[in-house]
Amino acid sequence: MPYSFFISHPSLRTVRHVKGEATTAYKDEKRGTWFANFRYKDWRGVPQRRSKRGPRTRREAEAWERDFKKRVSKAASMEFGFACDLYLQDTEPRVRETTLEQKRYYIESTLKPYFQGMLVGDIDAKTVIDWENHLLECRTSKGKSYSATYPNTLCSQLSAIMNHLVRFYGLERNPVQIAGKVGSKERHEMDVWTKEEYLRFSDAIADKPYSHLAFEILFWCGLRVGEMLALTPADIDFEASQIRVSKSVARIGGEDILNPPKTPQSYRTVTMPAFLAEELNEYLMMHATSNPNARIFPSMTKHLLHHEMTRGTKAAKVRRIRIHDLRHSHASMLVAMGMSVPSIAARLGHAGETVTPPLYPLDAWR
Questions:
Q1: Facing residues of 79 across strands?
Q2: By three-state DSSP, how is residue 126 classified?
Q3: Of residues 350, 316, 347, the one with CA closest to residue 333
Q4: How far apart are CA 204 and CA 290, in angstroms?
Q5: Is residue 309 classed exposed, middle or buried when 0-12, 13-18 and 19+ CB atoms within 10 A define those classes?
Q6: What mean pLDDT is reported for the chain?
Q7: Rg of the Cα trace of the chain?
Q8: Hey, how many other C-beta atoms are within 10 angstroms of the C-beta on 17?
Q9: How many beta carbons lie within 10 A of that of residue 259, not counting itself?
Q10: Which candidate, 234, 229, 223, 195, places its Cα nearest to that of 332?
Q11: Pick from 196, 189, 346: which is nearest to 270 by CA?
Q12: How far apart (Å, rounded) are the C-alpha atoms in residues 329 and 71?
């Protein structure tokens, strides 16, 4: 609707016009309400126009205009999708590729679809609460609700975007901080295997030495999947029965990318059980390579690990756990063996001196 309409229409009466600001409030004589129509500049300095119909008084119309102009300064006038792209662009040089891919996934799969077409300034605490309630009602393709940690992770990602806009693009406040987060930061429940359960599973997949060896390392050494995938013959000291962890593999865009370990504490040396050192030595002798820096598991993928986990648990008739829960199972075994918490944290490469306690009787390990 052209601006001239508001100037000439007989049902509207100009009650205020501040020279130089193109700021005008009108009264709709027919409806008995007020109409705010004004120009402003968005965060890029581009002139825009905004209107608001329905305020009951001139004061309400002017207050709405003032509040809007305050909110749209810089970041608040960005479309949310554009703000997300800007956040990723600014963040890319500062984070690992795997972290960036994870952020991009959360943004593209969940945040952008919900807040599509909205201005950042229109996302207030109530909008965030409505979105959080939506997350709590969402179901997976199998009809299950999200895990307790997933909504919290999404809230943290939205909050990170808003904090970035506050810090660098002039957004007045972070609405997620006002609304609060839903979900749980930590998993309160996780499945872990006893040694007997793992041995039954291990026997069931022993017909495939390649994947069997990968699971042996994950369970008996507590390595992260990416750390296991990055291992080379040069990382193995058979005389000392030790594995040197100095890198990690992540799959990005269908390609394996070699990265540093997750944290500085992740650089470590892990002692293997003697039987595992023998298994690993025999495997490498049968699959000898002239390159000591060639990966031991070059064709192993998380998909293959999940496939073998499903196959093995069905054959062994043991409950299925997540691949990462093999690491938790290892930690629980160490607790049951009496190893100190700082020693366990160092073996696992944790950033802090804490580990998750076992969630089943310690007698299961004895």
A1: 119
A2: helix
A3: 347
A4: 32
A5: buried
A6: 85
A7: 29
A8: 13
A9: 16
A10: 195
A11: 346
A12: 50
pLDDT tens column, 80-109: 999 999 999 999 999 888 899 999 999 999
CB 8 within 8 A of CB 32: no
Domains of the chain: 3-72 (3.30.160), 80-179 (1.10.150.130), 195-365 (1.10.443.10)
Please classify residue 59 by burial: count the beta carbons closer than 10 Å to its beta carbon, then call 0-12 exposed, 13-18 middle and 19+ buried. exposed
3-state secondary structure of 256: strand
Return the DSSP state at 127.
H
Q: What is the pLDDT of residue 304?
A: 96
Closest residue by Cα to residue 80 from 49, 112, 44: 112
pLDDT at position 280: 96
Q: What is the Cβ-side half-sphere exposure of residue 203, based on CA atoms within 13 angstroms? A: 9
CB atoms inside a 10 Å sphere around CB 359: 12
First to last CA, the chain: 79
Contact 76, 111 (CB under 8 A): no
Query: Facing residues of 237 across strands?
Result: 242
d(CA 308, CA 322): 12
CA distance 266 to 348: 7
Q: What is the DSSP letter of 192?
A: -
Residue with tokens 């943004």: 107
pLDDT of residue 2: 45
C-alpha 222/C-alpha 326 separation (Å) is 7
Angle at 71 between CA 134 and CA 105, to 5 degrees: 40
pLDDT category at 190 given cuts 50, 70, 90 is low
For 158, the 3-state DSSP assignment is: helix
Q: Which of 40, 146, 137, 96 is nearest to 263 (CA)?
A: 96
In which residue are the tokens 């990382």 written? 235
| Structure tokens, 38 | 């004004």
Residues in the chain: 366
